Structures are given as structure tokens and as C-alpha cells.
Amino acid sequence: MEQPPGFTNPLKPHFVCKLNRSLYGLKQATRAWYDELFQALISLGFQSSQADTSLFIKAGPGPDLVFGSSPSACQQVIQHLSSQFPVKDLGPLHYFLGLQVTRTDRGLFMNQTKYAYGLLHKTDFLGAKACATPLGSFKLDNSSPLLADPTFYQSTVGALQYLT
Which domain of life is it from (predicted)? Predict the structure, then answer.
């Protein structure tokens, strides 16, 4: 490591700068940001799920999830987090990461209908007829020429994996 240009101390040429916090763009920055968010949510009484550490749950009255609860409970979380992070309230949740969200009297109803229709439209399968198995009665063979640009196929397979 060397002293950065413009910050060289001629009296101490072998000294270097100590990084006290992760900077934007470094590999450690996302980890440092998550640690701060984690501590902020824990201080509000949330617990990290053992199944998925990015899911935070708060038992009892108050928010079940950061994005889904009563307006007053969400407002409390937003106010607390906005003291530490830049926060923007986008209003009630309708669509998030390919999930359509509808609030009912019984809770939240989530589905991926819009995402699935978008995928069918992108791949020109919107008017395709249904069959009992994904391949129908076709036999697989690898005698076809390779695709010139496999990115469309790869992105479609990735989208199907995300859908499932």
C-alpha cells in the first residue's frame, strides 16, 4: 500500500491511511451497509429470519415486514430509519420484484401473474397452446447448430427459474 497522491507526508513516507469505514464501490461496502441496516432493524425489535437473513420479522403489534403493515406502524419504522438512512416512502405496495401484492381483509395476497405474462410476451409464447408436459412429444437431440447469441435463451431460463 502506498500513500494516495496529494496526501503524501514526506516526513513519514512509509505511513499509510487507515480506512475507518467502507467506501462506496468497495467490496466491503454492501456488507457494511447491511450491518448498519441490520443493527437499525434489531434496535426496532425486528428479528432476522433463520430461513432468509434478508427477511426481518417483528412479533406482536407493529410491522410484520418493513413493507407490509398498518400505516402507523410503517410510519414509525420509516421515521426511525430515516434518521440513519435516506428513505423514501413510495406509498402502499402494489408490485415488488416480480410479485403483485394485493391487500385484503385477511392479509396480503401475492402472485406472479404479471411477471409470467410478461415472460410469455417476451418469448412470443403468449398465444401458445398448453400441453401436458413442457416438451410435448418432442425428442431431444443436439444436432441443431449452436445459437449465434445464447443470451436470449440464458435470460429466459433465468427468468423461468426466478418464476419457480
Answer: Eukaryota
Domain that holds residue 61: 13-91
Of the chain, the end-to-end C-alpha distance in Å amounts to: 47
With 0-12 / 13-18 / 19 or more C-beta atoms within 10 angstroms meaning exposed / middle / buried, residue 93 is: middle
**Do the domain assignments include residue 157?**
yes
Is residue 151 over pLDDT 90? yes
The answer to whether position 139 is within a domain reads: no
Both 78 and 108 in one domain: the answer is no
- Give the residues across from 95 on adjacent strands: 100
Helical segments of the chain, H only: 29-43, 71-82, 113-122, 151-163
The pTM score is: 0.53
Residues 45 and 75 reside in one and the same domain:
yes
pLDDT over 80 (residue 64): no
Handedness of CA 138, 143, 144, 149 (dihedral sign): positive
Sheet holding 99-104, edge to edge: 95-96, 99-104, 107-111
Closest by CA to 109, choosing from 121, 124, 99, is 99
What is the pLDDT averaged over residues 128-152?
Answer: 78
- Interval 78-92: pLDDT, tens: 888 888 888 877 777
Q: Which residues contact 74 (CB under 8 A, 6 or more apart)?
A: 63, 66, 67, 89
